[in-house]
Design a protein that fits this description.
Radius of gyration: 33 Å
CATH class of the largest domain: Alpha Beta
CATH architecture of the largest domain: 3-Layer(aba) Sandwich
Number of strands: 12
CATH superfamily of the largest domain: Periplasmic binding protein-like II
Largest sheet: 5 strands, mixed
Strand order of the largest sheet: 4-3-5-12-6
Number of domains: 2
CATH topology of the largest domain: D-Maltodextrin-Binding Protein, domain 2
Helix content: 40-55%
Structural class: alpha/beta
Order of helices and strands: HHEEHEHHEHEHEEEHEHHEHEHEHHHHH
Shape: globular
Strand content: 5-15%
Length: 390
């Protein structure tokens, strides 16, 4: 009996061993589907699935276009994206549209190493549309940029106002006005009635034009504005050759283009229509947070810029050649000709380059406020600072 009992117990043990082995095999699978079916929420195949807050693995980064440990990528590489922010040691300057003689001093400072002399090793000039330069600086994507006084005041008065400050005037006078083909016989603001105009494509330009036309006893509704004319802003010559008879323009840049094209024109300067409109030309603006947190760098940057513009004021021809050397595709005749006139505006009747006089600034903004040309009033001494330019 004892031997039978031992044999019976041995059989039971062997059966139990076989049963346990079978359970172990049924709990795993070569394709992982069986194991994952019983996994808790958030777990795949017994491994925790990454949530939005989890750090991706290197292989995850590679699949999303990030860094990969495998440097031998056979797939076609994507074009690099422009970074939205500069590194802490670099400075970006966004210019308003295509490079022209108003920007020459910046290129001189780069070419002659003035920035490096001030310890600024990486400075980049970035071309942007006129509507994006100030926004790029305000958002902090770039530290410096160029904007007109009229657009800056309008931006400062808007909801979600621009977080920028004008730190230097690149030109002591804006030279803005209405340029028109000679045959249109436009010699006063009221003469615009019945004629087609280009480059009056923003609300602030339209409101200012309305004030000036009505101030000359004209009826603004009789002025025909070409609304959908984005090309005219970039090429006023082309606009005047086609549908437009007049355009909002800068006499020193756009007037030079017309002269080279041998197109006779008339020009009505805004500051001659009203002395309060003797505003500044393009302004060098800076991000407010950058100025607050990098005061010394801002001063060093402006010192280099000042040297660049002082050189361009004294040596317009040499400076123009530096611009042409650094920016391919510019019209040489246009740059050389416009540089002569604009170089005289860098300092003009001011004591030195870049000066912004509070009285003139407030007079200009006061005109904009009183006539409701800006959407919201801008208080006196708002939007500029002479603290950083020495």
């Amino acid at each position: 009996m004892k031997s039978v009992s031992k044999i019976f117990n041995l059989i039971l043990c062997m059966g139990l061993i076989i049963s346990l082995a079978g359970c172990s095999n049924s709990g795993s699978s070569t394709n992982g589907t069986n194991g994952s079916s019983n996994a808790p929420s958030g777990v795949e195949g017994g491994v925790k699935a990454p949530s939005q807050g989890d750090e991706p693995s290197k292989s995850d980064e590679a699949s999303k276009g990030g860094k990969s440990s495998n440097s031998n990528n056979s797939s076609k590489a994507e074009a690099p994206k422009i970074p939205t922010k500069k590194s802490k040691n670099s400075i970006g300057i966004v210019i308003d549209g295509a490079p022209n003689a108003y920007h020459t001093g910046l290129y001189v400072a780069l070419e002659k190493g003035y920035f490096k002399e001030e310890g600024l090793k990486k400075v980049e000039i970035i071309q942007s549309s006129t509507s994006r330069a100030a926004r790029s600086v305000s958002s902090g994507n770039n530290q410096f940029g160029i904007e007109t006084q009229i657009n800056l005041l309008d931006g400062l008065g808007n909801a979600g106002a621009l977080e920028v400050t004008a730190v230097a005037a690149l030109s002591q006078h804006d030279n803005l006005g209405i340029i028109s083909v000679k045959d249109a016989k436009i010699k006063s603001m009221s003469d615009l009635m019945g004629h087609k105009g280009a480059n009056v494509n923003t609300g602030i330009k339209e409101r200012m034009l309305q004030k000036l036309v009505e101030g000359d006893d004209g009826v603004f509704t009789k002025v025909k504005l070409i609304k959908d004319n984005n090309k005219a802003e970039a090429d006023i010559v082309e606009a005047l050759k086609k549908d437009a008879e007049f355009a909002w323009a800068n006499e020193l840049t756009d007037g030079t283009m017309l002269k080279l094209e041998k197109i006779d024109y008339n020009f009505i300067k805004f500051s001659k229509e009203d002395k309060m409109l003797d505003g500044y030309g393009p302004l060098l603006i800076a991000n407010n947070d950058y100025l607050k947190n990098n005061s010394d760098k801002a001063k060093a940057f402006l010192k280099a810029v000042k040297k660049g513009y002082e050189y361009a004021a004294k040596e317009p021809e040499k400076a123009a050649k530096i611009l042409l050397k650094n920016v391919k595709g510019l019209d040489e005749d246009y740059i050389m000709e416009s540089q002569k006139a604009i170089s005289e505006e860098y300092i003009s009747d001011a004591k030195s380059f870049g000066v912004i006089d509070s009285k003139r600034w407030n007079t200009y903004s006061g005109y904009m406020n009183y006539n409701q040309i800006v959407t919201k009033p801008v208080p006196n001494d708002t939007g500029f600072s002479m603290k950083y330019l020495k």
